[in-house]
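Hi V.,

Quick status before I head out on leave. The structure for the redesign project is tokenized and pasted below; the design run finished overnight.
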């Protein structure tokens, strides 16, 4: 009889423990849905800090789940759901910041390229064998700038990346023109008097 009481008590305790320690699947699903929404809204790009914090919380909670620490995991999924929602809410503000950055970069590059084109006219005779490359890059720059402008509305991060590529092209020619401008003009002046002397 005593053995039966202990067995019954053991079964009741075990049932209670098993009943309390079930995996928090509903909380996990809700957190996963919040994460999917954050990813599709590009929170990883426009609300990077909040998204990384939410993802770390998710990963830590998954580790708790794998360790069968269900009570902690339940709270972790609740917290990570809230963190992913915060990241999603920050997307618009983040996108505006990047859009403003892209617009400023495009405007800055337009002005810089205009100045570069004027510099090219001043040293046109010195371009010689570089003239064809300059014309090809000038066309590529104008096309690239148009592409960057077109990207701003829907994908400002790609627009910023594009302006970075265009900046490299600008800097390359800026350095080339400065080098060509610094080339001594004395040989050309010497050549002219020789021609006059021959006449």
């Amino acid at each position: 009889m005593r053995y039966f009481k202990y067995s019954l008590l053991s079964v009741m305790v075990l049932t209670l423990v098993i009943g309390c320690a079930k995996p928090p699947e509903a909380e996990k699903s809700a957190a996963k849905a919040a994460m999917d929404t954050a990813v599709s809204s590009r929170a990883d790009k426009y609300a990077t800090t909040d998204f990384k914090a939410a993802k770390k919380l998710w990963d830590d909670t998954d580790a708790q789940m794998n360790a069968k620490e269900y009570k902690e995991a339940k709270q972790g999924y609740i917290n990570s759901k809230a963190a992913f929602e915060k990241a999603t809410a920050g997307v618009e503000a983040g996108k505006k910041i990047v859009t403003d950055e892209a617009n400023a970069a495009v405007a800055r590059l337009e002005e810089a390229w205009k100045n570069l084109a004027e510099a090219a006219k001043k040293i046109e005779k010195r371009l010689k064998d570089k003239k064809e490359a300059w014309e090809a890059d000038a066309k590529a720059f104008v096309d690239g700038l148009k592409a960057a402008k077109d990207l701003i509305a829907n994908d400002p991060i790609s627009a910023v990346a594009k302006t970075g590529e265009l900046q490299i092209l600008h800097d390359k020619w800026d350095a080339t023109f400065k080098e060509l401008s610094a080339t001594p003009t004395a040989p050309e002046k010497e050549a002219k008097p020789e021609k006059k002397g021959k006449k």
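Above is the designed sequence. Residues 93-182 form one domain.

G. will cover questions while I'm gone.

Best,
W.
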